[in-house]
Amino acid sequence: MFDERDLGRGLMAVANRGMAAKAAAGLVVLGLAGLLMLAPFGGANTSQAACAPGVPGQPGLPFQPGQLRETQIGFAKLIDQVAVQRGLPGRATLIALMTALVESNLQNLTYGDLDSVGLFQQRPDAGWGTAKAITDDPPVYAINAFFGGKEAPDPPGLVDINGWPAMALGDVAQKVQVSAFPDRYATREGEARQIAAAAGIDLDRRGNPYAGRDGLPPGASVGDGTPDEETCGTSGGLESGQPVNGVWPEQAQSVTDPTGTGGLLTPRTAAWVEEAKKNLGALSMSCWDAHVWNPTSDHPRGKACDVMVGADSRRSAAARARGDEIANWAVKTAGTTGVHYVIWYGKIWSARRGTWIPYNGGGVYVPTDATGGHFDHVHVSMW
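RE: above sequence
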């Protein structure tokens, strides 16, 4: 499992796998020395915010060119290959990539905390198998062990977790890893998606989330966890549909924003606000905004509204269900209200396309952030 010794692993990550063992041990010592320097400030109990920037588990890491990234892409392809062979959805691959990035920087390490080794830092003493099996090259055994199922070792893997498709990605990783630092997995989602894109991996691939397991959990179906059937708690998931055709002439901003911002909306946007209130009940909504950090936004043009759901929906089933309800209503009524596009829960829907696709932040927002990825509000833009 990930601990402060990963300061040492972060240094080792840049070394070629063929480097001499003596040099590798030296770098580990340097990592441990760094750990001892941190001891006066909390040691192993230090919070994530106090960790040195750039070590595994930190958010916002940039794309890493060179041999390290090529190695990571190679292991990502292998992880996805195993997932595809098992019939697992792309979401399973994403969680495995996030986990391996935190645990080993997505490398097949022969060392780690206590007896932890391999891509996922699995421990022989915890029942994951022998160190030789876990670090086999290629590490197919370790990948299958992470995914779990009837042929895997005793510790429960991904497919052994009831309802995992409805859980936040980082929470699923923690269910498998049982780490002392459970919040670190979610911080690597952006980098995992970046690597998956470079590897040509389809993270929206359909599949059976319990493939390889003896039977399905009560109430589960093979479709659980696929993009258009994704659920969370009582949420019904996101609905797509067909492209919405229509002619929507340009309108000037002429109506005082009914959400109280003091700005002006187009008549079409103001009408949408009133319809949303009639059909969706009480809403916490804000439309016009100067958006000085993003002048191309529809907000200062009076053509967009943000509807808050009250929490980060990755951690709240109620917030996810409410956001799904709002987003689905906006999509279903787009043909009569003039909705241009909707952004919600890390995805974007447009009238011209008629389907949901992953949202990458548009070069302005951090897609893994609660607000930047639109996990705490639904954005609706009008024509």
